[in-house]
Amino acid sequence: MTCSALTKADAECGTCRVCAEAGCPWESDALPPAAAAHRIRRLHRDERLLDEGDGAGFACVVLEGYLRKEKVLPDGRRTLLGVAGPGDLVTRMPGTAAPFAVEAATPVRLCNIDGRATAALVARDGPFRRRLTSALVRECAEARNMIWRRGAQTSSERVISALAAICDVEANGGGTPVLRLRVPRLDWAALAGTSVETISRTLSRLSRDGILVPVGPDRFKVLDLGRLEAFAGFDSEATSPFDRDATSGRPAQPPGRVYPSPVAPGAPSA
Q1: Residues 244, 230: Cα–Cα separation, whole Å
Q2: Quick check: 46 and 103 in contact, CB under 8 A?
Q3: Which residues contact 227 (CB under 8 A, 6 or more apart)?
Q4: N- to C-terminal Cα distance for the chain?
């Protein structure tokens, strides 16, 4: 699918939540060449950013919306390997075949550095190269934790683990958080390694147990956050995966990860 055109960043730079909350990810003393190379890019839902096997490097920070990382198996089934939301850095090193495709799960706005500029910066700019390497290390850690979740958790537990990665948390006058699903349910199911029917059964169970109740097609009111996190198997001593900035609804931590992945007991944290 043909990608959207790139436009000059100057007209919109600094107006996004990422810049407002944490500062521009490219604008720093250590990364001046990257700051000059970035452009705003928009993708429509289901539009392809990167094909599986593509060796062209790129780097982008998600400003709005969600990207999905997916792989098509030999039998034609698709599996979702991860998502990236506002504040996340998504990258591939030049000359390295992409192990998965990257598509827009929702309409997306990116702060993008294209393949040619990425290759030039990687070759000559140490801070930029380290920034991309760190993002790839986080990606590997999250892939490791996904493997653990799919092997150790039940399908219902994975439903809530996946929800933590793809929801915003809305402030509620009564003090009870409301989770807003940001991607299609098919993507939610693929990320959890289960089916849409299993999601429906899990939500019905949580509603009966007084933990989580639907308040709209894609909105869910949390009645008992502690029990919801325990249901998903999250470490009670770790930062809550549903801990969000009260204004933006996004994670109340520096951009770079969508949510803290759970780890197996005794395993080192990512």
Answers
A1: 18
A2: yes
A3: 209, 211
A4: 34
Considering the chain, what is the average pLDDT of its residues? 76
Average pLDDT over residues 73-82: 83
Give the model confidence (pLDDT) of 18-53 as tens digits. Answer: 665 555 666 555 555 555 567 888 999 999 998 998
User: For 36, phi and psi rounded to 5 degrees?
Assistant: -80, -20
3-state secondary structure of 205: helix
Nearest-CA neighbor of 69 among 60, 270, 132? 60
Res. 264: pLDDT tops 60: no
Cα 50 to the center of its chain, rounded Å: 16
CB atoms < 10 A from the CB of 78, how many?
13
CA angle 7, 10, 12 (to 5 degrees): 80
Which uninterrupted H or E stretch holds 236?
A: none
Q: What gap in Å lies between CA 252 and CA 86, rounded to an integer?
A: 12
Query: Quick check: 143 pLDDT over 70?
Result: yes
Q: What is the Cα–Cα distance from 39 to 126, expressed in whole angstroms?
A: 21
The residue whose two tokens read 């996946």 is 162
